[in-house]
Amino acid sequence: MEIPEIETPRLRLRGWREGDVERMAAIYSDPEVVRYLRPLDLEGTRKQLLGFEYQWQERGFGLWAVEERTSGRLIGRIGLFHHADWTASQHDAEVGWTLARSSWGRGLGTEGGAAALRYGFETKRMQRIISIAHRENLASQRVMEKLGLHREGETSWRGIPVAWYVISGQDWSRRED
Ligand SMILES: CC(C)(COP(=O)(O)OP(=O)(O)OC[C@H]1O[C@@H](n2cnc3c(N)ncnc32)[C@H](O)[C@@H]1OP(=O)(O)O)[C@@H](O)C(=O)NCCC(=O)NCCS
């Protein structure tokens, strides 16, 4: 399938292009950005983007490349991912976000996250979307709260202490009322 393009007031969520690998690797080269993430070099970034593309083809959802509409510049990735190794609960997908540091603090993570949730619930008819963050990653947890996710608890995942949040399709539709 072709990855669907979604526009929000300030963002364009679009499919991945060849030239995006270098820009995403540059975003990941900032230690602040990867403070709570697995660091990726250029080759690791290339593999990750191929994995995103693969999941789009396999499941019809995934992570989008995120552009700021005014500049057309790639500023990160936002979207949905199913983790086969997440066993703490049933989930249709996890919603996640990573933006270049220069784009933080303007509500863009929340704006893009809302578009991803809308796609999951309204286009893909998902029932349960989770979000997982390092226990100390409070900015990401704040985005989850602003999007209406509820904290479920803490666990260890891939050897990391994480907090995880949930939103059901019912919560989402009530939120839209
Ligand atoms: C998480 C991330 C996408 C948030 O993007 P963003 O566009 O800055 O998010 P928003 O502006 O929509 O919201 C951030 C919220 O977190 C709050 N916040 C930021 N830093 C915080 C901190 N250290 N402690 C507590 N809250 C914090 C902000 O004040 C804001 O809340 P508010 O609107 O109530 O003031 C961005 O920080 C990022 O890319 N981080 C690095 C990658 C990452 O860790 N991704 C998540 C992996 S689980």
Describe the structure.
- By secondary structure, the chain is of the alpha+beta class.
- It has one domain: Aminopeptidase (3-Layer(aba) Sandwich).
- The chain has 5 helices and 8 strands; from the N terminus they run ββααβββαβαββα.
- The protein has helices at 20-28, 42-59, 108-123, 138-146, 169-176, and strands spanning 6-7, 11-14, 63-68, 74-81, 93-99, 128-134, 150-157, 160-168.
- An 8-stranded mixed beta sheet has the order 1-2-3-4-5-6-8-7, sandwiched between helices.
- α1 (20-28) crosses α2.
- It is globular and about 40 Å long.
- The protein starts with 5 loop residues before the first strand and ends with a helix.
- Residues 33, 36-37, 96-99, 104-110, 133, 137-140, 142-143 line the site of coenzyme A (COA).
Do you know the CATH architecture? 3-Layer(aba) Sandwich
What's the CATH superfamily, by name?
A: Gcn5-related N-acetyltransferase (GNAT)
Spatial order of the strands in the main sheet?
A: 1-2-3-4-5-6-8-7
| Arithmetic mean of pLDDT | 97
The number of helical elements comes to 5
Helix and strand string, N-terminal first? EEHHEEEHEHEEH
Profile the largest sheet: 8 strands, mixed
Q: Give the helix level as a range of percent.
A: 25-40%
Query: What is the count of distinct domains?
Result: 1
Under CATH, the topology can be stated as Aminopeptidase
Any descriptors?
single chain; alpha+beta; Aminopeptidase; eight-stranded mixed sheet; 5 helices; globular; binds coenzyme A
